[in-house]
Amino acid sequence: MRRKSGLILLALAVFFAALSPLLRWYAFPRLAKVPANQYTTMVLEAKNATLLDYDSFQAVKVPKVTIVQTLKGNVEASEKIERTAGRDVVVWDGLSYVQGPDGKMVSKFPERYIFDAHTQEPVHATGEMVDGDPVKRRGIEFKWPFLTEKRDYEYFDAQARLTAPIHYKGTQDFRGVSVYYFEQTIPWTRVPFPKDLPVKGVTPEVVAATGMTRWYTTVRKFWVEPVTGAPVYGEEIHQEELRGGALLGGRDKVTAFAGHVKMREDYIESTVDLVKSQRVLVLLLTSYLPWGFLTLGVLLLALALYLEARGRRPAEPEPAKTSAPEPVTA
Q1: HSE value, Cβ hemisphere, 13 Å, CA-based, for 196
Q2: d(CA 58, CA 39)
Q3: Which contacts of 276-285 are long-range, i.e. CB under 8 A and separated by 24 or more positions?
Q4: What Å distances lie between residue 182 and 15, 26, 65, 80, CA to CA?
Q5: For residues 300 and 17, what is the distance between their CA atoms, to the nearest angstrom?
């Protein structure tokens, strides 16, 4: 009976020991993915910002500029691309809507970002665009890969339509979460005018015909939770200028927007809570279950060997029986 139990325990030990690396290196890369139907909204604010007054064409100080950023998963588009791409694909339709303190639109900036659901690498397909212009992204955008590493990454800047390194600057604690801090600087770069301008009836082509150009620079900062690859917080030190052209009345340039853009407090709290919950799910596949199965396999192996050793131990000899002496008769 001991020998049979030992064989069962040995089989279970081999099973759990083999399941440990299988779960981490085979199941995890296939199971961990960004859902195709994800929908998120983020509100950012730049307080005491500089904004262009289009009536006087002068830069003025305003108490606050608000940026509402939405990312909506397009399931129908992702399924269509998957049929030809042969892999899991996510399509995010994004919109950055900037409004001044009076609630009026300053700019509207749509995007379509297509990427691999597992690795977050861009997938090039029809429909990939920034503000209506076809693009071919290189590098990540919005989200880092699962199990983010302590290294620089290539990050796509949608305003400039270019890819530049975003540098790992160290590990920090952000509201009880261990995060990697990344920073990217985009130097002054000429960028296109938005398709939707705040002045009714004025198009980018009309503005460009006056000889005016639009320039942009930013310092982009992200605090990324490395297990999920999700940013828990972000900031931008953002500047835009209009340069040259007849509309400036002889001036070389005017500030169109300048401000330190930060996530609003209520969205910081909800983002941190969401990332904490998602972090546990990823750790189950990468750490908790693999190490748990490996430990269980070792314990089962030790128990099987113990039972086998006991089964092979020779039985102790029974003491010899002595009969009572028979009485002596005359």
Answers
A1: 15
A2: 38
A3: 276/177, 278/228, 278/230, 279/177, 279/225, 279/227, 279/228, 282/32, 282/146, 282/147, 282/227, 282/228, 283/227, 285/23, 285/24, 285/27, 285/28, 285/31, 285/32
A4: 41, 29, 24, 34
A5: 10
CB of 117 within 8 A of CB of 105?
A: no
Provide the angle, in degrees to the nearest 10, between the axes of the packed helices 289-312 and 2-22.
160
Closest-CA residue to 23 (of 262, 286, 279, 309): 286
Whole-angstrom CA distances from 4 to 16, 297, 310 are 19, 18, 13
> Are 52 and 61 within 8 A, CB to CB?
no
d(CA 167, CA 154): 9
pLDDT of residue 303: 86
259 φ/ψ angles, rounded to the nearest 5 degrees:
-175, 160
Give mean pLDDT in consecutive 10-residue pieces for the chain, a chain of 330 residues.
Answer: 73 88 89 92 95 90 96 95 92 95 91 95 95 95 95 96 97 96 97 89 86 95 96 96 88 94 94 92 91 91 81 60 56
Residues contacting 94, CB < 8 A, separation 6+? 69, 70, 71, 72, 110, 111, 112, 113, 142
95-125 as b/e: b if 16+ CB within 10 A: ebbbbbeeeeebbbbbbbbbbbbbbbebbeb
Q: From 270, 284, 288, select the one nearest 230 (Cα to Cα).
A: 270
Q: Note the pTM of the prediction, 2 decimals.
A: 0.88
Polymer length of the chain = 330
Angle at 72 between CA 36 and CA 34, to 5 degrees: 30
Burial class (CB in 10 A: 0-12, 13-18, 19+), 238: buried
Q: Which two tokens stand for residue 320?
A: 């010899």
